[in-house]
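Example record

One chain of 243 residues, shown exactly as stored in the release files.
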Amino acid sequence: KYIMSQLILVINWIFSSRESSTFTFNLTLRNRKYLIHYVSLITKQSYEVIEKYFSEVENNKVLKDYVIKRIRGSKYRHKKDLRCDFGSRVAWYAIIRANKCQVVVENGVEIGYTGILLCDALLKNKQEGFAGMYYGLDINPDAGYLISESPYSGISKILVADALASLSNFSMPIDFYFSDGLRTQEYEKREFDLLFEKVNNTGVIVSNKLDLSDALADCATQNNWNFIYFKEQPFKHWFPGSG
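Predicted structure tokens for this chain:
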């Protein structure tokens, strides 16, 4: 029964989706509930406050319409579905909103699907009097298509270079860091060792590769950081979700 249900999802995806990576999906309602508790623990904010931030972005029609419009008119329209489901990314949005982060860094920008959400959180904070800046690290000069020439241009900057080199030269204390770069244990160990000197005492590091690498857990042990794990449960999608 389990295999057949997954097979049906795979077949539907093959004939209905353009995506071969960076899959877009919603979470199951139960998984969303658990994720709100997870973020509440990280931020030391109540469940109700974090759920408000989740709903804020989930109901942001202006942002979703903007993303779909930009994808429809771009060369990426053959690789991306015309939908805007952020999945567990809403958690990173909520962390930035709750912690009023000032310096947000993402390693591995691609077209900016995650980046634009992080920028929107920063923009909302700015409207409430808490200014912040997004820095995207990527070796690809075309990275960050959704962010460039957008309402977020004034609070974002893409650093086109080797990400570890950019990180080595980064001088500001980092409040939030999202790791979506090279997926190897060796690379991530170098990345997180560098971050030990860059992230401030209340900073948060997120990796979506914990099913593939335990480098972040090892780094947390070595540096006496708190480490917690969350597993996505996609709603009506064959992909098992990231850790």
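Notes: The CA atoms of residues 71 and 167 lie 29 Å apart.
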